[in-house]
Amino acid sequence: MVFLTAVNLIRSRGPDEWWRKRKIFKLAAYFYGRRRNCYSLAIRSVHRALVYATKSRQERKSDLAELWKQRITAGAAQHGIEYWQFMDGLHKNNIEINKKNLADLAAWEPASFESLAKISKDFVEKNRNK
Amino acid sequence: MSSRQRVQQWATFARQWHIFDCKWQNPYESAIAIVKHLKGLHKPIYHPMNDCGDHVICINTKEIALPGNEWTKRAYFHHTGYPGGASWTLAWELHSKDPVMIMKKAIYRRLGNNLQRRYTMQRLHLFPDDNVPKELIENVTSQIRQLRVVPQRIDHIEKDVIDNYPKIMDYPTDYLPKTLK
């Protein structure tokens, strides 16, 4: 008796087994121990690694924003001004430089950063009693 | 890399030495300022994996000031690891045993729990008074500003300054001032 329906296809999964596992082993190539070579262990670790990769894509953005904020705070403190005052002064003077570039300026272009800090400090002084 | 850039690199990553006078300072608030310098958070090149922290020398830890009734109420916990090995030491007791320990613990706690904490603590130098070894004090190039103004005690003011201070009245000869309790 020959079944010609799709029922037969249930157990035949995808491409050839060797190639299917090879895709997973390539992703597991840098793992430690048996997780690199045993398929049943490798597949678990690869799934977990892909979840981490997906989450980290979002977390990287906030981590970097936090680092830039820390660096700008340090740069602004060198000129005696706080982070929020510095950023507010730039914003009110229509200077639209993002945090990444401000952090770069603080480290690599201290003279430019000092000029920006001076603009913010003048703005704070001018609006002190308003 | 030109020689000028090379020297600039050295100067950027050189460890600085800061000094902090703990006299009449709250250790838990001071720890925030000290940790900032120990970790290098005050530099625009900061990165958690960048080893850019500085050295800090804390002097006069014997003369710290705890707020409120913390000298008698704050307890420091220690456990030897053996059954019944727990002990609670009050702040005044700990301070009388080791005048450096309260400041050290405040900073250690503020550093946060990570693997770098013990290495960062090696860059902290605590002294109960202002006797700092010469090989340490000669490195110092900057001072961390105190968070609180150290008040002047009336028994430390010279007598002729008090006598010549302008006053609006003299106390009557039979007046007895209220004694402090």
Automatic annotation (TrEMBL), chain A:
One Pfam family from the record: Ribosomal_L20
Entry's Gene Ontology BP terms: translation
GO molecular function: rRNA binding; structural constituent of ribosome
Family as reported in the entry's similarity comment: Belongs to the bacterial ribosomal protein bL20 family.
Domain of life: Eukaryota
One annotated Gene Ontology cellular component of this protein: ribonucleoprotein complex
Protein name, UniProt field: Large ribosomal subunit protein bL20m
Naturally occurring in which organism (per UniProt): Polypedilum vanderplanki (Sleeping chironomid midge)
Stored InterPro entries: Ribosomal_bL20 (IPR005813), Ribosomal_protein_bL20_C (IPR035566)
Keyword Transport: no
UniProt entry keywords in alphabetical sequence: Ribonucleoprotein, Ribosomal protein
UniProtKB/TrEMBL annotation, chain B:
Signal peptide per UniProt: none
Gene3D superfamilies according to UniProt: Ribosomal protein L13
Keyword Ribosomal protein: yes
Any one Pfam family match given in the protein's UniProt record, by short name: Ribosomal_L13
UniProt GO MF annotations: mRNA binding; structural constituent of ribosome
GO CC annotation: mitochondrial large ribosomal subunit
Presence of the UniProt keyword Ribosomal protein in the record: yes
Key words of the record: Ribonucleoprotein, Ribosomal protein
Top-rank lineage group of the source organism: Eukaryota
SUPFAM superfamilies on file: Ribosomal protein L13 (SSF52161)
GO process annotations (BP): negative regulation of translation; translation
Record InterPro entries: Ribosomal_uL13, Ribosomal_uL13_bac-type, Ribosomal_uL13_sf
NCBIfam families reported for this sequence: rplM_bact
Family: Belongs to the universal ribosomal protein uL13 family.
Protein name: 39S ribosomal protein L13, mitochondrial
Naturally occurring in which organism (per UniProt): Polypedilum vanderplanki (Sleeping chironomid midge)
